[in-house]
Amino acid sequence: MSVKADPGCLFCRIVSGEIPCERLYEDDHILAFADVNPQAPFHGLVIPKEHLATLDEFDDAQARLAGRLMLVAKELAAERGLRGYRVAMNVNREGGQVIFHAHLHVLGGRQMKGSLG
Predict the structure, then answer these.
(1) Please, what is the Cα angle at 98 between 82 and 58, to 5 degrees?
(2) Contact 110, 40 (CB under 8 A)
């Protein structure tokens, strides 16, 4: 399957297999892998295989993909027996995004500090 990719994007290079990762889940549209700089005992990243730089690039055509990203995050947490976990997406530099390929962080295995809402 051919997907839109950015050859300079770290996550696109992971999707292509050019850069190895600890794959946690994969289907035709989504890849999940372990974060190399974990912020919790479990820290997975869930990404679309298609290069979408930020959440701002999603539109109605990616609505199903956006929903699947969330469901994969839930499945990763369930597989690890996490009773509580955090799912977060940083958007744009001002929102803390460092790698410009949309991705969800799934964190668990310890008490999460602070409240987001």
Answers:
(1) 80
(2) yes
Beta strands in the chain (DSSP E): 23-26, 30-34, 42-48, 85-88, 104-108
Tokens representing 37? 């700089």
CATH of residue 98's domain is 3.30.428.10
| Domain span including residue 72 | 10-108
What pLDDT digit, counting tens, does each position of 73-106 carry?
Answer: 999 999 999 999 999 999 999 999 999 999 999 9
116 falls within a domain: no
CB 101 within 8 A of CB 52: yes
Its pTM surpasses 0.70: yes
Q: 47, exposed or middle or buried, with CB in 10 Å at 0-12, 13-18, 19+?
A: buried
Total tally of structural domains belonging to the chain:
1
Contacts of 23 (CB under 8 A, 6+ apart): 31, 32, 33
* Positions marked catalytic: 103
